[in-house]
Amino acid sequence: MEQLPIYIIIIFILTTLLTLLLLFKAGHYSKPLIILSIFWLAIQAAISLTGFYTVTKAMPPRFGLLLIPPVAFIALLFLVKKGRAFINSFDLKLLTLLHIVRIPVELTLYWLFLYKAVPQVMTFEGRNFDILCGLTAPLVYYFGYVKNVLGNKVIIAWNVICLLLLINIVVTALLSAPFPFQKFGFGQPNIALFYFPFIWLPCFVVPAVLFAHLTAIRQSIK
Prior knowledge:
Layout: H1 6-26, H2 31-49, H3 64-79, H4 81-88, H5 92-97, H6 102-114, H7 131-146, H8 152-176, H9 200-221
């Protein structure tokens, strides 16, 4: 991967830390949550620094070890009684604000595209519209939870639409990576997410955003 300006790396690390902080606050400063999150971030950083994820010809792709465990953990929380009780305790206002991290994430992806580390299709100049979720999150927070002028149906609809946009970019990122099933970005594949600190995007930031949406939908329906 081409040498990147230090500001891209710093901004993304700060974005990950902001995601962690907002998730921690929304969970009412749960100690198990912060300990597990920090451990997961640290262990994935250590693994990535060995070059483990840069091996892209293995099947199944090693990249799955970044995304599958946190998604499986989220699914487990929704399946067990104690997990559902934990989910119901989260502050929806802060979980809504958490989506503002999608703005610096999308800027980071654009910068990575400029430095030939991800394809254009993964940016807002391509087929990634995820930045709209970050831009509208403060509006949903203010009008939905401060002014209380947005009904549950509107909040649920926003979360569902943003969830679909998240799935869209995740699928695009996977199909843009140099795996045997690659479909996009052959001239400039997605390689940045195999390196530290950008591995934190699939292993933590994306699962945190996914959890925020699913929790908001569950609580709003209830």
